[in-house]
Amino acid sequence: MKIACYAAGSVGTNCYVVSDDNGITAIIDCDGNPAPLYSYIEKNNLKVTHILLTHGHYDHIGSVNEVAEHYGCKIVGAVQEMPLFTDPALNVSQFVGAPIIVHPDVQVSNGDVVKVGDMEFTVLETPGHTAGSICFIGKDVIFSGDTLFQGSCGRTDLPTGSWADITVSLKKLAALPGDYQVYSGHGPATTLETERKTNPYMR
User: Fold this and answer.
1) CB contact set of 2 (below 8 Å; sequence gap of 6+)
2) Which neighbouring-strand residues pair with 52?
3) What CATH fold (topology level) applies to the domain 2-202?
4) Under 8 Å CB-to-CB from 55, ≥6 apart: which residues?
5) What backbone torsions phi and psi does residue 59 show, to the nearest 5 degrees?
6) Phi, psi (5° rounding) for residue 168?
7) E strand or H helix at 114
8) Between β-strands 24-28 and 47-52, what pairing exists: parallel, antiparallel or unpaired?
9) pTM surpassing 0.90?
10) What's the Rg (C-alpha) of the chain?
């Protein structure tokens, strides 16, 4: 699994490009000007088949429709997050620019497995930052969206957010067996073991 990351959009959202040895690729969250994304994918001869969405806030879905149309790929999002995907007031897009509505082609729930080439991503529902936030868990990686950050966690004061729920979700992540590389929606990568030991919100 090869992972590339670039910070995009107005708040520096981490957009990930994840590919297998054959170049079959998933994009995880998608905001901002997609030109650097297109350039990287073309340069590396990748074939994008999926866009995986950790949640529905504007800064994670801002360029999803454009990129999905460009590649003819499937959009994957959580069933529980459909209200945010389809309501610009809830996903905050109508307050920061043009309204955004996304209609995932594939709706997933806890425990579902998304196959992208030789890669598999298991869906873990982690509500709190939003009601339908999810993490995508690979063999030794977690794409945590805005649930878990290095030393911190996502805010819960936007529509459908819940501090009570995110504390439960963080404990759920902490209880996973073994260690993982954690790729968050903002900021640097970390490891699950590091966060278990040092993140005050995971204790």
Assistant:
1) 18, 19, 20
2) 28, 76
3) Metallo-beta-lactamase; Chain A (3.60.15)
4) 78, 81, 84, 129, 130, 132, 133, 134, 145, 146
5) -80, 0
6) -65, -40
7) strand 113-116
8) parallel
9) yes
10) 16
What amino acid is encoded at 12 in this protein?
G
Q: Is the dihedral of CA 57, 62, 63, 68 positive or negative?
A: positive
Spatial separation of the C-alpha atoms in residues 41 and 185, rounded to whole Å: 20
CA neighbor of 56 nearest in space, from 82, 95, 26: 82
Q: Which two tokens stand for residue 103?
A: 């209609």
Q: Which two tokens stand for residue 1?
A: 């699994």
203 residues of the chain, pLDDT tens digit each: 999 999 999 899 999 999 999 999 999 999 999 999 999 999 999 999 999 999 999 999 999 999 999 999 999 999 999 999 999 999 999 999 899 999 999 999 999 999 999 999 999 999 999 999 999 999 999 999 999 999 999 999 999 999 999 999 999 999 999 999 999 999 999 999 999 999 999 98
Taking the CA atoms of residue 169, residue 193, residue 114 and residue 2 in that order, the dihedral angle to the nearest 10 degrees is: 140
Residues 163, 111: Cα–Cα separation, whole Å: 23
Q: Where are the alpha helices (DSSP H) in 11-151?
A: 35-43, 58-61, 64-71, 82-86, 93-96
Alpha carbon separation from 91 to 36, 49, 64, 107, 201 (Å, rounded): 24, 25, 14, 17, 25
